[in-house]
């Protein structure tokens, strides 16, 4: 469902990511339901060679962690939530644009050297990202922009003509990926469009992308949330648990955004970690891509944990005991899965492209935050704190045989 958000957006390359990404879980489900059982039946215990695990499937470490969190549920929840909120604060200053020239120049190579020469030429950092103006009245456009304080230069060669259409390039003093440069590019666009011209270029493209994607993404996100809630409510047989899972997902993704902005846009640790300057902005398509991937991955971890807690509760355990059991039984599995993804995204961050580095950073840190702070502390703390409220459903909601038996036998409410 989270990858389906990309398919609904009016941008072809995001749609292609969505379609391709959907194939991964679909193929995985088919393999898990067909090939994997057949392999287990034919090969069996030989797959465990050279190590065969004995004893309980629970993790003693995660049982101790779960017990501590349940015993200190409110303080654990407050501390974990406070950390997520602090990490999310930089996200409110997120600026969507391409990486600045300074960031690209610091990557080295011929392209980086060329950008450095352009910057040192004194023609304005916006030279590499001009505002492209197509007009049948080039003289009026040039006259309107010449002498404008926000315009570093203009060019309109006679060879840039097709029929009655002429191309006029205007560039800004500052890089259009910076706040001042973006404002200047918007001003140039306003003046040119006021004269009936069509305006393109990187700044205009990013502005149109933001309007097209983020201006309409709210209904896509709302649809995902509603469908996810329905699926989780059916699976967990609860109204409260799905609401809590969705709420925690919001905090988790917001924290990932904040850390991504703090590192790349604000430049804290960028040179230490990646040996290059800060990007100065977050590439326009990255937040929606990070949302699509992190929403699905984070919800996976929530389902692992909450479904195990639900099973333990149906078997007769109190909410507190069920929560500790759920953490103990899923801790090793979720941690291993998160580490695999974390290392995969860390490897991806070594790609020279700054855009890919930003994406990999957001995904890697988001996965670690969710698998540890959210799934290991905040989620079980809130389940324990809410107690029997977790299992509330409307009177018309169908109950399973196990949960009905537990409800009829249980006389002592959990803490």
From TrEMBL:
GO terms for cellular component: plasma membrane. It comes from the Bacteria. The keyword Transmembrane helix applies. The keyword Electron transport does not apply. SUPFAM superfamilies: Multidrug efflux transporter AcrB transmembrane domain (SSF82866). The chain crosses the membrane at residues 26-44, 65-92, 217-239, 246-264, 284-304, 333-353, 373-393. Residues 2-71, 184-402 form the Membrane transport protein MMPL domain. Its main location: membrane. It is found in: Cell membrane. It is a multi-pass membrane protein. Keywords: Cell membrane, Membrane, Transmembrane, Transmembrane helix. This is Membrane transport protein MMPL domain-containing protein.
């Amino acid at each position: 469902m989270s990858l389906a958000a990309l398919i609904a957006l009016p941008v072809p390359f995001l749609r292609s990511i969505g379609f391709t990404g959907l194939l991964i879980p679909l193929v995985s489900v088919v393999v898990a339901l067909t090939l994997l059982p057949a392999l287990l039946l034919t090969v069996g215990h030989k797959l465990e060679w050279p190590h065969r695990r004995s004893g309980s499937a629970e993790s003693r470490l995660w049982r101790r962690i779960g017990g501590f969190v349940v015993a200190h549920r409110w303080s654990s929840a407050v501390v974990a939530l406070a950390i997520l909120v602090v990490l999310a604060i930089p996200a409110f200053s997120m600026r969507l644009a391409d990486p600045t020239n300074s960031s690209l120049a610091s990557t080295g190579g011929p392209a980086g050297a060329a950008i450095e020469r352009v910057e040192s030429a004194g023609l304005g950092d916006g030279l590499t990202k001009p505002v492209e103006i197509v007009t049948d009245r080039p003289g009026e456009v040039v006259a309107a922009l010449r002498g404008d304080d926000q315009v570093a230069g203009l060019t309109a060669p006679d060879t840039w003509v097709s029929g009655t259409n002429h191309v006029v390039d205007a560039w800004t003093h500052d890089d259009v990926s910076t706040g001042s440069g973006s404002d200047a590019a918007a001003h140039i666009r306003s003046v040119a469009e006021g004269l009936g011209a069509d305006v393109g270029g990187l700044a205009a493209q990013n502005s149109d992308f933001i309007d097209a994607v983020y201006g309409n993404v709210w209904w896509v996100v709302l649809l995902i949330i509603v469908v996810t809630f329905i699926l989780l409510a059916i699976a967990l047989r609860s109204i409260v648990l799905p609401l809590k899972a969705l709420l925690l997902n919001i905090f988790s993704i917001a924290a990932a955004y904040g850390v991504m902005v703090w590192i790349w846009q604000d430049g804290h640790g960028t040179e230490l970690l990646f040996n290059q300057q800060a990007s100065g902005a977050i590439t326009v398509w990255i937040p929606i891509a990070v949302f699509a991937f992190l929403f699905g991955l984070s919800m996976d971890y929530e389902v692992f944990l909450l479904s195990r807690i639900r099973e333990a509760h149906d078997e007769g355990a109190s909410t507190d005991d069920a929560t500790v059991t759920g953490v103990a039984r899923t801790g090793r599995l979720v941690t291993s899965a998160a580490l695999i993804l974390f290392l995969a995204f860390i490897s991806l961050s070594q790609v020279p492209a700054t855009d890919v580095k930003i994406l990999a950073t957001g995904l890697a840190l988001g996965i670690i935050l969710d698998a540890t702070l959210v799934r290991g502390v905040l989620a079980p703390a809130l389940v324990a704190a809410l107690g029997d409220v977790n299992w509330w459903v409307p009177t018309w909601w169908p109950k399973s045989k196990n949960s009905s038996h537990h409800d009829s036998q249980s006389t002592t409410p959990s803490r």
